[in-house]
Design a protein that fits this description.
Elements lengths: L2 H25 L3 E7 L10 E6 L3 H19 L5 E3 L6 E5 L3 E6 L1 H7 L1 H4 L4 E5 L3
Length: about 130
């Protein structure tokens, strides 16, 4: 495979992962979904952030569990690391090229990742 073909393949895989993450969040009734494209930023820790929120710790845990289950079942992908499951105020799932942040609304406002990474290209998704 040529290097440009392998880059297109990796980009396609990342887009598929992102689509599955967004679908999983919407299915679990996650709210205020945003995708931050960090690829053009020099100091970015990853290519994409997906940020959403749940209204309770139970829902936050359910959203994170849904993402993990769907990516494992449909794409055979598992997170490299999961943080925050115990308190479920902010759960972070690390899928290398994409990091998913599932927040309680108050913590999301406090950390304000969208403002911290305001140079990123932001795509908002509908809450179903």
């Amino acid at each position: 495979m040529t290097s440009s073909a392998s880059i297109r393949s990796a980009e396609s895989a990342t887009e598929t992962t992102l689509e599955q993450i967004i679908d999983s969040i919407q299915e679990a009734k996650g709210k205020n979904i945003a995708k931050l494209d960090l690829r053009q930023l020099d100091d970015a820790p990853t290519d994409f952030f997906v940020i959403c929120e749940g209204s309770s710790t139970t829902q936050i845990k359910a959203i994170a569990d849904r993402i993990e289950r769907d990516l494992k079942t449909n794409l055979s992908e598992r997170p490299a690391h999961v943080e925050g499951s115990r308190n479920a105020q902010w759960i972070c799932l690390d899928y290398f090229n994409t990091i998913v942040h599932v927040f309680h609304p108050e913590l999301r406002a406090f950390y304000d990742l969208e403002d911290l990474w305001s140079d990123a290209e932001v795509t908002q998704y509908e809450t179903l």
